[in-house]
Amino acid sequence: MVINTNLSAQNAATLLMQSSANLSQSLQRLSSGSKITSPASDSAGLAVSMKLTAQMARITAASNNVNNAVSFSQTQDGYVQQVNTALSRMSELSVLAQDVTKTTADRALYQQEYTALGSYIGNVSTQSFNGVSLFNGATLNVTTDSEANTFAMVGLNLANGTYTTATADDITSISGALQALTDVKAAITQLASDRANIGSNEESLSYYSNQLTTLNNNLSSANSQITDVDVATESTNYAKENILVQTGTAMLAQANSLPQSVLKLLS
User: Fold this and answer.
1) Quick one: angle between helices 231-257 and 7-32, nearest 10?
2) How many helices (H) and strands (E) does the chain have?
3) What is the pLDDT of residue 243?
4) Which in 73, 136, 137, 210 has the greatest CB count within 10 A?
């Protein structure tokens, strides 16, 4: 029996230190809700989680871009509906102006309304969405994923010749009204094609939006498997380490008292 070196106490102290460290880590996991409380907890898992988190942030940004593009297309369609109404009325006026029972003064009144509607269409062609022209015909490339791939959103040009020719016609004569009818019908046909493009843009963008939402959910689930703590399992681990710390403390106290038995040999 020796008193200078108490191996039992040293071993008990080492085990107590390990249990205390495990208990501290368990407390950190339960309080933070994360299994990775430091790079040492899971260095590989942390690296993967960081990349997944960054990718999810980029996907969220791309989703915002797509949703804004959908709003852009919906705004276009709102204007186009009104332009269609205006062109329909202009075609009606061009037919009314062909009435042989109408005088030149009557046709002048039709022309007044026809011109006003044409001016309205011209005004719509200059409208914008957050400073971006709605109807200049430019194709807009919308970012659709975290890697900056894009979807080409076909543009619509209300200032092209088909529309401007129709809006500039004169229906104060029967011959002019006949020409106006031909031009307005062509403009209506062009508008129908343009509106179909808007619908195609909206449909495609909706698919991209749904795809991004699903992908973000899947990545979030994968990241959760890496980082999120299982509270039930960790609570059990915490209880175990807590008991080990308490018993380790008690055993260290017992080990420290062993050298005192030497006094009995000296008495």
Assistant:
1) 160
2) 7, 4
3) 83
4) 73
Q: Which residue, among 83, 90, 120, 113, has the nearest Cα to 183 in the 3D structure?
A: 90
Given the structure tokens 């000296």, which residue do they identify? Answer: 266
Q: Is the alpha carbon torsion for 242, 243, 244, 246 positive or negative?
A: positive
CA dihedral 9, 14, 17, 21 (to 10 degrees): -160
Start-to-end C-alpha separation, the chain? 15
Identify the residue whose tokens are 């852009």. Answer: 72
To 10 degrees, what angle do helices 43-96 and 174-227 make? 170
Please give the distance of CA 216 from its chain centroid, rounded to a whole number: 9
Contacts of 29 (CB under 8 A, 6+ apart): 35, 37, 229, 234
Cα-Cα-Cα-Cα dihedral sign, residues 150, 131, 82, 173: negative
Burial code (b: 16+ CB inside 10 Å, e: under 16) for 15-30 equals bbeebeebbebbeebe
Copy the structure tokens of residue 53.
């988190």
* Residue 137 · residue 131 · CB < 8 Å: no
Flag whether pLDDT at 1 surpasses 60: no
1-5, 11-15, 255-259: which is most confident? 11-15
Per-residue pLDDT reduced to its tens digit, 71-82: 999 999 999 999
Strand partners, 151: 142
